[in-house]
Specification:
Distance between the termini: 38 Å
Helix content: 55-70%
Oligomer: single chain
Order of helices and strands: HHH
Length: about 90
């Protein structure tokens, strides 16, 4: 029986190592978070504008809100990725 820990990569790196596939996959999601949040906000704003007849007020407002939410999510994810493997903060 081997002494490999569960979750170790084939090259022997732990899953939270910056060179691991898991880390690489998490970083690749950054490119989709921001456009997805902006599109969701602007899309909901567009539907609201159509419903209330006030185009482009809600489209712009919710698009900007989506931008802020996307940037916040990227900040949180990058902080979580940089803290992995360091243990809990004190």
């Amino acid at each position: 029986m081997s002494d490999d820990r569960p979750g170790d990569q084939p090259d022997g790196r732990p899953p939270d190592d910056p060179g691991s596939r898991r880390f690489f996959g998490d970083v690749l999601t950054f490119g989709w978070v921001l456009p997805g949040a902006i599109a969701a906000g602007a899309g909901l704003g567009y539907l609201g504008d159509r419903l209330f007849g006030i185009f482009p007020v809600l489209t712009a407002a919710l698009g900007i809100l989506g931008l802020v939410a996307g940037l916040r999510q990227i900040y949180r994810e990058s902080g979580a990725l940089s803290d992995e493997g360091r243990g809990p903060r004190k």
